[in-house]
Amino acid sequence: MRRIGLSVLVACVAAGGALVLAGATEAAPATSIVGKWSGYLIPATGSHTSRQRLTVVVNRGERAGTWRINARCAGSLRLDNISNGFHHYYRVAGAHPGCAPLGVDCLKRDGSRILDWFVSNSGTANSNGAFRRLS
Question: Could you tell me which of 42, 44, 89 has the C-alpha nearest to residue 65?
């Protein structure tokens, strides 16, 4: 009888320890980029573009979203892949395709903000910036 009690105690302690560890190692909330983010993209050295305010919305599941510079310049984001913590989204043109360069937005969570490295299809309008969460 005493042996059964000891086995139950050991099992309970092990299960409790596993729950504590599982809770402590859960990283999804700290790395999630779901939501509405806004900030400025700063041109990379040698780029032929200007500083621009960009708003991105990443949908649940992180597979798609939208981008917007202003009311006439907006489009959708389509996930290409995820590597080294970066979500690589194709910037798809909206109604006015010439309003902004197209390419790939590489988004990564960095504390309470996300970092965006934009690589243009032409290679001449690359930029980067840090965005804060709007919602």
Answer: 89
Task: Please report, for the domain that includes residue 104, its CATH number.
Answer: 2.40.160
The verdict on 107 and 118 lying in the same domain is: yes
Tell me the residue range of the domain where 22 lies: 1-29
Question: Same domain, yes or no, for 71 and 7?
Answer: no
Question: What is the Cβ-side half-sphere exposure of residue 30, based on CA atoms within 13 angstroms?
Answer: 6
Burial 58-68 (b: 16+ CB within 10 A, else e): beeebeebbbb
pLDDT tens digits, 26-71: 334 578 999 999 999 999 998 888 899 999 999 999 999 999 999 9
Q: Kindly state whether residues 56 and 87 are assigned to the same domain.
A: yes
Q: Which two tokens stand for residue 119?
A: 């690589």
Among all chains, which residue has been given the structure tokens 């939501």? 35
The angle at the Cα of 54, spanning 53 to 56, to the nearest 5 degrees, equals: 160
